[in-house]
């Protein structure tokens, strides 16, 4: 063996990482552990309450999907080293703009949807451009837009219709080709088959007698699945995904390596706005109305889901799958408290506790990765 080979074998800088340690520093670990714990607990305390029958599963899956959609955008942005506190206000703003264009102004609903997407994504780009050009923390810039968008969401409908709730969206969307992409259901035939086979319950009386209690998969859940898969693929299988990690890990070093850091960060702000608008569309077509108070606190819930999923607040580390698990934990707990007969206000207590524990765990993981003390 040559001297070079011997010196390499003895080089202290080359260390083998055990499989246990590799598993321990994976960002999804906290989300996986939390998901298992939550399901076990509610399986014990609410297993016979209907939480895990077809209708119960649909309930907490729908709530989880809401968190999941906005968590994907928040996760990618946080890995890139930035925050967006305007997500909740963007949800309310997007829903209101859709109602104004489609109901108040009477435009075809598909045009209202596309224009709303364009407006919201432009606002997302403006957020990113201001952060990049001024050097201000994204926390401050998006906090300003939180108030700006919420103010417009209240002001515009008051000026046009003297109210802050606009209904009639379902009627305006009848026959529209794009609205069902956000407010429809799919695989109804499959659930009818399960009902006929006695696998899931069916209604025994009323106008829906003989129909399964679950008559399709809501597009909200479909969008959540699509965004999680797309986000995970982007982050782990593409060069742009590597750029996202590099931009959040060390922006200056990334620039010196040829990574277009500014473009990456602006794109992530646009992606966050896109995800918030999808959430808003699914919401307005589900309820058939838009309200100025929609989306309150959603920005914080998205960030908490991402943190539970293992993303570091300092950027450069995280996982879309972990964020999806964090969102799943939210949905299961929120609905599980109801099924278990626990006071629902304790959900907010849970959010605070789980956030604190997740930050402590993430800090420990960061120290393992960086070698800090």
Could you say what the CATH topology is called? Answer: ABC transporter involved in vitamin B12 uptake, BtuC
Average of the residue pLDDT scores: 88
CATH architecture: Orthogonal Bundle
What is the general shape? globular
Could you give the order of the helices and strands?
HHHHHHHEHHEHEHHHHEHHH
- Largest beta sheet, briefly? 2 strands, antiparallel
Please report the first level of CATH classification, the CATH class: Mainly Alpha
Structural class: mainly alpha
Measured distance between first and last alpha carbons: 38 Å
Order of strands, main sheet, comes to 1-4
Helix content: 55-70%
Q: Assembly state here?
A: single chain
Number of strands: 4
The number of helical runs is 17
Number of domains as seen in the coordinates: 1
Low-confidence stretches: none
Beta-sheet strand percentage? under 5%
What is the radius of gyration computed over CA atoms, rounded to a whole number of angstroms? 23 Å
What does this protein structure show overall?
This protein has a two-stranded antiparallel ribbon. Helix 6 (109-134) runs antiparallel to helix 7. The protein has a single domain (53-364), classed as Orthogonal Bundle (ABC transporter involved in vitamin B12 uptake, BtuC). It is built from 17 helices and 4 strands. It is globular, with a radius of gyration of 23 Å. The mean pLDDT is 88. The two termini are 38 Å apart. It is 70% helix and 2% strand.
């Amino acid at each position: 063996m040559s001297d070079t080979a011997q010196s390499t074998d003895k080089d202290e800088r080359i260390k083998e990482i055990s499989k246990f340690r590799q598993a321990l520093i994976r960002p999804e670990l906290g989300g996986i552990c939390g998901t298992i714990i939550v399901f076990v607990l509610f399986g014990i305390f609410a297993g016979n309450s209907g939480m895990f029958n077809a209708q119960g599963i649909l309930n907490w899956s729908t709530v989880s999907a809401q968190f999941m959609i906005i968590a994907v955008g928040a996760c990618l942005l946080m890995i890139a080293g930035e925050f967006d506190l305007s997500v909740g206000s963007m949800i309310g703003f997007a829903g209101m703009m859709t109602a104004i264009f489609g109901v108040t102004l009477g435009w075809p609903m598909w045009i209202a949807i596309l224009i709303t997407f364009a407006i919201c994504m432009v606002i997302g780009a403006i957020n990113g451009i201001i952060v990049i050009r001024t050097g201000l923390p994204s926390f401050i810039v998006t906090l300003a837009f939180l108030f700006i968008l919420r103010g417009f969401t209240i002001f515009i409908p008051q000026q046009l219709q003297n109210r802050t709730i606009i209904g009639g969206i379902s009627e305006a969307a009848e026959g529209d080709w794009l609205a069902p992409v956000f407010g429809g259901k799919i695989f109804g035939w499959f659930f009818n088959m399960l009902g006929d086979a006695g696998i899931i319950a069916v209604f025994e009386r009323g106008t829906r007698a003989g129909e399964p209690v679950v008559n399709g998969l809501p597009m909200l859940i479909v969008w959540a699945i699509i965004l999680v898969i797309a986000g995970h693929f982007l982050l782990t299988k593409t060069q742009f995904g590597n750029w996202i990690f590099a931009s959040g890990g060390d922006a200056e070093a990334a620039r010196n390596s040829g990574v277009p850091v500014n473009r990456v960060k602006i794109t992530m702000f646009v992606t966050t706005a896109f995800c918030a608008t999808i959430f808003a569309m699914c919401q307005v077509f589900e309820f058939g109305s838009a309200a100025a108070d929609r989306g309150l606190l959603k920005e914080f819930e998205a960030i908490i889901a991402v943190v539970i999923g293992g993303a570091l607040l300092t950027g450069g580390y995280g996982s879309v799958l972990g964020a999806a698990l964090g969102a799943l934990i939210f949905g299961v707990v929120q609905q599980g408290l109801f099924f278990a007969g626990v006071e629902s206000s304790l959900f907010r207590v849970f959010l605070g506790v789980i956030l604190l524990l997740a930050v402590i765990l993430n800090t420990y993981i960061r120290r393992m990765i960086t070698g800090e003390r």
